[in-house]
Each structure stands twice: as structure tokens, then as C-alpha cells.
């Protein structure tokens, strides 16, 4: 059964402070029906979707989880459009090599690249034998990523989704996200990370980095929309019951936007314990 719609109904219902009974009353169904949708035991009838979307103040696309709430999600669209080549280049991030060390593709491994941008990391993983799925919110980024994958003669399953309302309903061995977790506002972090953790195989790996706030670092992106820097160390707190082969915090110089500034970033590699280790 597809849990995605149920998850989205739950998140949006909570966001609008509605109980299951209140939502049920607004759309003329029983509260048991709402409960079954949210637990993934049944799906709403197609004819109920417009009523649900109306009651939850969203459109049907975002109920279904495929991105495209008509709001502007990121300010990257313009950069990807106006850069002739690849805004982030085609060289993979250093994290990709760490992932290869920790979880080598010596057997088929399903890897998810969250907010994959123009695909430099996703294509690297596919070239190296991983089964890669990758999504981003920006269509032009995905077009470029698909072009790159075709040129590299690799197969990546790319799709468009907004990580704020997309939830996993199948498992991955590796979940990777570089440079994008700061788009998740604080109130959604726990629930989103729990969804990723639940849909990770035992022995599977999470490899994430995240921009964090430091009182002594001021930089231009602090003022930008959609970004919510994390508290230093916050990411690690969600992984108390995972094995941590490596984690750390670094401060580095950046020249994006033409103004020299610094960032602080936390990086985490965490392995989900197997049944025997629990
Ligand atoms: C700094 S870029 C990193 C891209 C890629 N991970 C890389 O390392 O090259 C951040 C990416 O996050 C994507 N993004 C921002 N908010 C998002 C959201 N809510 N859902 C999905 N992708 C999002 C942007 O479109 C952009 O491609």
C-alpha cells in the first residue's frame, strides 16, 4: 500500500491543527477513514481528493507528493537556467568517495540522492555500479542531470519532488544529501529524518552534510529565503541509536555570489544497526 498520500495527509492535517475527526467532518467521511489513510491501510477515493486538498489548503499535486506546489521552492532555478554549462560542475563531491569506502558497490545497492541538483553525484554513483534514484525540486536541474547521465551512458531514475512534502515508501541501502538539508525548516526535520531512517535497510548508510549557524560567522546566505541553517551538532542528535563511523564540523571559505565569506558545515556518516546489534 502506498504510504505517501497518507503521510502527506497527516503532515498537512497537523500543520493546520486539525484532528482526524475535524478533517473527517469537513469532507464527509468517518474519522476511521482518515485514520486508515494516514496509516497507509487504505487510499482516499479519487473523488475525495479535491475536497481533501481544499480542507488541507493545498493542491492535489502536493497531496500526492510530487512537488509541484505552485510556490517557488528554491532560488536555484535562475542559476541553473543562466549557467550554460553545469553550475556545480561535473566533479563529484568528496563525500561520494567516503560512501564508496563505507558501502562499496560489491553487491547491488540502492542509493537515493536527495536534492541532486544537476546530477554530478548521482551520475558518479551510477557509473560506479550503484542503483541510483535521485530527485530535486527544480525541473531544469533534472533536465541537465538526465543529459549528463545519458552522455555518461549511465542509468539514474531522476524525478521531481519537493523534499518538504515527499516521503519515502520504499527502502534504500544508502541515502545521501549534500548541500540541501538547510532547506528543511526546523519543525519538519524530525519527521522527515524518521521517514528516511525507517526506509533504510539494516546496515544501510546515511551520508549527510548540513550548513550550521555559528555566532562568529556572518555570511550573505543568512539573509536568503527558504534557508534554515541548523544548530551546530543538531544533525547528530537524530542518530543516537545508529553507528557513527565518522562525523565532524568544518569551517570553510566560499566565494559564491562574488562576496568572500565563510560557512560552517556538519557532516555525518551513520550506519543503521542490524537486527542483531539492536
Ligand atoms: C546547493 S544545491 C546542491 C545540489 C547537489 N546536491 C550537489 O551537491 O551538487 C541545493 C539543491 O537543493 C535543491 N532544493 C532546494 N530545496 C529543495 C526542496 N524543497 N526539495 C527538493 N530539492 C530542493 C535545489 O534545487 C538545489 O539543486
| Poorly predicted parts | none
**Structural class by sheet pairing and helices:** alpha/beta
Task: Characterize the biggest β-sheet.
Answer: 8 strands, mixed
> Roughly what percent helix?
25-40%
Number of helices: 11
Q: Mean of residue pLDDT?
A: 90
- H/E order of the elements? HHHHHHHEHEHEEHEEHEE
Oligomer state equals: single chain
Summarize the structure.
The protein has 278 residues and is of the alpha/beta class. The protein contains 11 helices and 8 strands.
Secondary structure elements and pairings:
Layout: H1 4-15, H2 20-26, H3 31-38, H4 49-55, H5 60-64, H6 76-82, H7 94-102, E1 110-114, H8 120-127, E2 131-136, H9 139-151, E3 156-160, E4 172-177, H10 186-198, E5 200-213, E6 230-231, H11 234-237, E7 243-254, E8 261-271
Parallel strand pairs: 1-2, 1-4, 2-3, 4-5, 5-6
Antiparallel strand pairs: 5-8, 7-8
Helix pairs in contact: 1-3, 2-3
This protein binds S-adenosylmethionine.
S-adenosylmethionine (SAM) binds next to helix 8.
Description:
The chain has 278 residues and is an alpha/beta fold. The protein folds into two domains: 61 residues, 434 Repressor (Amino-terminal Domain); 202 residues, Vaccinia Virus protein VP39 (Rossmann fold). It contains eleven helices and eight strands. Strands 1, 2, 3, 4, 5, 6, 7 and 8 form an eight-stranded mixed beta sheet that branches. A hairpin with a 6-residue loop joins strand 7 and strand 8. The two termini are 27 Å apart. The mean pLDDT is 90. The protein binds S-adenosylmethionine (SAM). S-adenosylmethionine binds next to helix 8.
Amino acid at each position: 500500500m502506498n504510504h505517501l498520500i497518507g503521510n502527506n495527509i497527516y503532515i498537512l492535517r497537523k500543520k493546520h491543527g486539525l484532528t482526524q475527526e475535524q478533517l473527517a467532518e469537513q469532507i464527509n467521511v468517518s474519522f476511521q477513514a482518515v485514520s486508515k489513510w494516514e496509516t497507509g491501510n487504505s487510499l482516499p477515493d479519487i473523488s475525495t481528493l479535491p475536497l481533501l486538498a481544499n480542507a488541507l489548503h493545498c493542491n492535489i499535486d502536493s497531496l500526492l507528493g510530487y512537488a509541484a506546489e505552485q510556490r517557488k521552492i528554491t532560488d536555484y532555478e535562475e542559476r541553473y537556467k543562466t549557467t550554460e554549462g553545469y553550475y556545480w560542475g561535473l566533479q563529484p563531491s568528496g563525500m561520494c568517495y567516503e560512501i564508496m569506502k563505507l558501502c562499496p558497490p560489491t553487491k547491488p545497492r540502492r542509493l537515493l540522492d536527495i536534492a541532486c541538483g544537476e546530477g554530478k553525484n548521482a551520475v558518479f554513483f551510477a557509473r560506479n555500479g550503484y542503483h541510483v534514484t535521485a530527485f530535486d525540486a527544480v525541473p531544469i536541474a533534472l533536465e541537465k542531470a538526465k543529459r549528463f547521465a545519458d552522455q555518461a551512458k549511465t542509468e539514474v531514475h531522476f524525478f521531481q519532488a519537493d523534499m518538504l512534502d515527499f516521503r519515502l515508501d520504499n527502502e534504500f541501502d544508502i541515502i545521501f544529501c549534500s548541500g540541501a538539508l538547510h532547506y528543511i525548516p526546523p519543525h519538519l526535520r524530525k519527521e522527515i529524518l524518521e521517514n528516511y531512517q525507517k526506509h533504510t535497510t539494516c546496515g544501510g548508510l546515511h551520508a549527510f552534510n548540513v550548513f550550521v549557524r555559528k555566532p562568529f560567522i556572518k555570511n550573505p546566505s543568512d539573509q536568503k529565503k527558504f534557508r534554515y541553517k541548523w544548530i551546530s551538532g543538531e544533525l547528530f542528535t537524530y542518530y543516537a541509536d545508529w553507528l557513527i563511523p565518522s562525523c565532524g564540523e568544518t569551517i570553510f571559505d566560499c566565494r559564491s555570489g562574488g562576496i568572500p565569506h565563510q560557512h560552517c558545515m556538519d557532516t555525518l556518516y551513520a550506519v543503521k544497526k542490524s537486527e542483531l546489534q539492536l
